[in-house]
Design a protein that fits this description.
single chain; 423 residues; UDP-n-acetylglucosamine1-carboxyvinyl-transferase, Chain; 4-stranded mixed sheet; 13 helices; 31% helix; binds ligand EPZ
Length: 423
């Protein structure tokens, strides 16, 4: 038996969606909080499965955690070393932020592999190279990663490729090492800027926030603090695309305009009917009469995490569009499913060519990763008839209560238990 999402499409949505806290920031804040060896309080933490996995790891490191409503209270004053080989490490990719945190604290870390959505090649060579530039000796033994940090030192890291995770891991290690570390070609995602604000509130000295050159004066003793997680910009984008595809009027609250500017620019080109005032975005169903070429890119470019929801949105229109997926080698698992629903999309190299069609038809479809499963929910809301989306476990990793939020704006969507006989 399997929990699935059942959708009856073509309902006109109307109402208000409240955006939850950022998944991609909180998965960095939670490991980073250990560096305080004190009490850290973080508000606006969404109850998604990635958060529970990280809390499980904290507790195995002897850390006391309380989680009330959307507030996490993390007391790491009695943290103790443990090899990073617990099962939770393999449930998400961001568990690797514990590598840098424990390496700086204990100078030696043995870790198992990490998890994360299958989006093609996702090595960690940039993380390892950054650690080595700060004096770490790395070796891989069978499926174990061994980091030796006996001779850590400040350094000058120049990333030859922009990486969100590697930038965060470099920052988390460098702030523990006495001296000045410079990180060039750093990723500039809002989540990194916010993490640096969090670390600064804990007593760290970090310059260059929001730029691609971060300068850290490391080795200071850090202390507890209180922090507010920002709204999840990818959740905003997901619901904005749902609104543009299906809503009489969808009000999306807790929006930071600059974090979704790339999507708003795209809406302007496509003449999507929307308005934004302070932290509230309103979007209405808009007939797309032309194609568009979109390149996914590091922030502030169009986010790869919205490529899959955008593919579903563009599947039904009058034009031909191309999305160039420049970040991942294989973030295309949703295309086959969309084509079975009647879309006309093909992929050559990293280019997704979308020939708009009049209608999609409901079907049983398989979500294979977090944003891909979300894109199939969008397709189900657009399609004629009934769609069953498998892969709810992926959605629950990154979207708080998606079914509840959509039902509140009159989507005909429910959680069901089905037996497909194949699991
Ligand atoms: C973060 O992943 C996000 N995850 C991803 O969101 C997001 O798609 C990605 O950044 C890009 O914006 C979190 O923040 C938890 P990268 P990350 O390192 O850090 C290659 C979602 O749906 N690379 O910026 O893993 C990599 O293969 C998730 O919420 C190396 O080659 O992404 C990719 O092609 C999915 N070597 C590119 O760089 C490395 O050592 C960008 O990856 C690391 C990365």
């Amino acid at each position: 038996m399997e929990e699935v999402i059942r959708i009856k499409g073509q309902k006109l949505l109307e109402g208000t969606i409240h955006i939850s806290g950022s998944k991609n920031l909180c998965v960095a804040l939670i490991p980073a909080s250990i560096l305080a060896r004190d009490v850290v309080v973080i508000h606006n933490i969404p109850p998604i499965s990635d958060v529970y996995s990280l809390v499980e790891i904290l507790e195995q490191l002897g850390i006391c955690v309380e989680y009330h409503q959307d507030t996490l209270i993390i007391d790491s004053s009695n943290v103790k070393y443990h090899d990073l080989d617990m099962p939770a490490m393999e449930r998400l990719r961001a568990s690797y932020y514990f590598y840098s945190v424990l390496l700086g604290m204990y100078h030696k870390v043995t870790a198992s592999g990490i998890g994360g959505c299958r989006l093609g090649e996702r090595p960690i060579d940039l993380h390892i190279k950054a650690f080595e530039q700060l004096g770490t000796k790395f070796q891989k033994q069978e499926n174990k990663y061994i980091f030796d940090g006996e001779n850590l030192h400040a350094g000058h890291i120049i990333f030859d490729k922009i990486s969100v995770g590697a930038t965060i891991n470099a920052i988390l290690l460098a702030i523990q090492i006495k001296g000045k570390t410079i990180i060039e070609n750093a990723a500039t995602e809002p989540e990194i800027t916010e993490l640096c604000k969090f670390l600064s509130k804990m007593g760290a000295t970090i310059e260059g926030l929001g730029t691609d050159c971060i300068v850290i004066k490391g080795g200071k003793t850090l202390h507890g603090t209180t922090f507010y997680n920002i709204p999840d910009r990818i959740e905003v984008g997901t619901y904005a695309l749902i609104g543009a595809a299906t809503a009489k009027n969808l009000i999306i609250k807790n929006v930071i305009k600059e974090h979704i500017q790339a999507l708003l620019d795209l809406f302007d080109i496509l003449e999507v009917d929307y308005s934004i005032k302070e932290n509230e975005l309103q979007v209405r169903k808009s007939k797309i009469k032309k194609g568009i070429i979109v390149l996914t890119a590091p922030y502030p470019g169009f986010p790869t995490d919205l490529q899959q929801p955008l593919t579903s949105f563009l599947a039904v229109n009058e034009g031909t569009s191309v999305i160039i997926e420049s970040i991942y080698t294989n973030r295309f698992a949703h295309i086959k499913e969309l084509n079975e629903m009647g879309a006309n999309i093909n992929v050559t190299n990293m280019n997704i060519i979308i020939h708009g069609v009049k209608e999609l038809r409901g079907l049983v479809v398989n979500g294979k990763d977090l944003r891909g499963a979300a894109s199939l929910v969008i397709a189900g809301l657009i399609a004629k008839g009934e769609t069953v989306v498998r892969g709810l476990e992926y959605i629950n990793r990154g979207y708080e209560n998606m079914i509840k939020k959509l039902r509140k704006v009159h989507a005909n969507i429910e959680l069901c238990i089905e037996d497909f006989g194949d699991n």
